[in-house]
C-alpha cells in the first residue's frame, strides 16, 4: 500500500463529493488533521477507518487500498478469488475484535468513573452534613475515673462542595463515554 497514492486518491474522492477535510473527518469520527495527514501521504487510515472511508465514498475497501487502479478488474477478480474473500473475512473479524476490546475498555472506564463519582459525592455530602472533625483526644483523671475529652474543628465547606462537583464531573464523563460509544457503534453498522 503506497501512502502517497492512497492519500491522493482519498483527496480526489473527497473533492468529488464536494466535502471539506473537516466534513469527511466528522463523518468517520477522526480529526481533520488526520485526514490532512492521509492526503499528504504522511500516514494511512487505521484498519477501522478504511471501512468507514469506503462506505462514505461508496467504494469497496479493495478499491480504496488499491487507490482506484484497475477498479473494474479488481472488483471482478475479488468476487472470484477465494483467498481475497478469506482475507476480507479476517479483516472484518479483526475489526469486530477491535470494537469488542474498545467496548470493554469503555465499559470499564465508565464503571470506574461512576464509582469514583458516587464516592466523591457521598463523601462531600456526608462532610457537609457533619462538618466537625475530631482533631485530638485527651484522657484526664478525675475523682470518679478517667474522662475522655475530645477536641473538634469545623471543616470548611469549600472542599466538600468541590468533592461533590468533581463527583458529578466523573459521572458525566462516564455517561458521555457510553453515549459516544453507542453512537459510534450505530454508525459502524
From TrEMBL:
<feature type="transmembrane region" description="Helical">
    <location>
        <begin position="109"/>
        <end position="128"/>
    </location>
</feature>
<keyword id="KW-0472">Membrane</keyword>
<dbReference type="InterPro" id="IPR010982">
    <property type="entry name" value="Lambda_DNA-bd_dom_sf"/>
</dbReference>
<feature type="coiled-coil region">
    <location>
        <begin position="81"/>
        <end position="108"/>
    </location>
</feature>
<protein>
    <submittedName>
        <fullName>Helix-turn-helix transcriptional regulator</fullName>
    </submittedName>
</protein>
<keyword id="KW-1133">Transmembrane helix</keyword>
<keyword id="KW-0812">Transmembrane</keyword>
<dbReference type="Pfam" id="PF01381">
    <property type="entry name" value="HTH_3"/>
</dbReference>
<keyword id="KW-0238">DNA-binding</keyword>
<keyword id="KW-0175">Coiled coil</keyword>
<feature type="transmembrane region" description="Helical">
    <location>
        <begin position="157"/>
        <end position="179"/>
    </location>
</feature>
<dbReference type="InterPro" id="IPR001387">
    <property type="entry name" value="Cro/C1-type_HTH"/>
</dbReference>
<feature type="domain" description="HTH cro/C1-type">
    <location>
        <begin position="10"/>
        <end position="64"/>
    </location>
</feature>
